[in-house]
Amino acid sequence: MNKNILLAAVLVAVAVIGGTMPLWGDSYWMYEFVNVACLFIFAMMWNLMAGYGGMVSVGQQAFFGLGGYFMLALANQGGINPFVAIVLAALATALVALPVSKIAFRLHGGYFAIGTWVISEVIRLTVANIDAVGGGSGTSLTAFRGVSRAFRESVTYWVALAAVLVTIVGIYLFLRSKQGLALQAIRDSEVAAESQGINVAQMKLAVYIIAALGCGLAGGLYFVSNLRISPEAAFSVNWTAFGIFIVMIGGIGRIEGPLIGTLVYWLIDHYFSDYGTWYLIGLGTLAILMTLYVPGGITGLAHRLTGMDVLATRRVLKSVG
Known about the structure:
Helix content: over 70%
Structural class: mainly alpha
Distance between the termini: 22 Å
Strand content: under 5%
Radius of gyration: 20 Å
Number of helices: 15
Number of strands: 2
Strand order of the largest sheet: 1-2
Shape: globular
Largest sheet: 2 strands, antiparallel
Order of helices and strands: HHHHHHEHHHHEHHHHH
């Protein structure tokens, strides 16, 4: 069976089975799914930038937080339906990323990574001084007043499920396109890519904007589910730290990497987060060990052992005859 047809069949099955969860599932598991979905989308965006574009950022939480705050402002102050506001907030975040990129792209390598974190902190401090959105203490999403809890939780779950499916399909199709091949060429060697006629600056900007949009979408969705936002929660560097952990565990530069990594992270968080500091030390130790001994992550190891490449984006030249 053609791999694309198999992938489509699996996604349709997930959509059909998962889409019925509000009819039979517990609200706790729907809430858990939404939180995990947001982290997965965030990790996918970081993987797109670093794993495929070679742009290592530790400041992607800036766009996650902006997505949450734009959603809240549109819903509370603008009177827009919060679910519609999620999409509008993602678009607004992408627009903000355009001028921000002018600053970030002046830096390279480690300077770029640190620079993105500094930009995130500047945005956090700026938002913390805006009284209209609660200032430093944050505020609550009040636009759901009069809406039943069951309806809100069900729609939030469906939006999260749709966002996950769109993210997987969208990134897969993008990476299989000519632009995706150009992006991976830039990751391997900017000089070689430019010598082949690839507009490196334009391609990196496009990926930066796409990643910002995805992070903004995840942020808006997350705070619709949690109903409250604050600068510390929205712009915490932990978002990027956990995103990096997920990608490194699952496999950087592979679409299925964040999928597996998110599942592993959720299992660890679900069963060991009560251990506090030891839990964080364990996450760090596991990440270090994986980086040293299994640099390709779980999916990379599986590919080496079995030759299986489920969501392959690279093209293989086969001889004819």
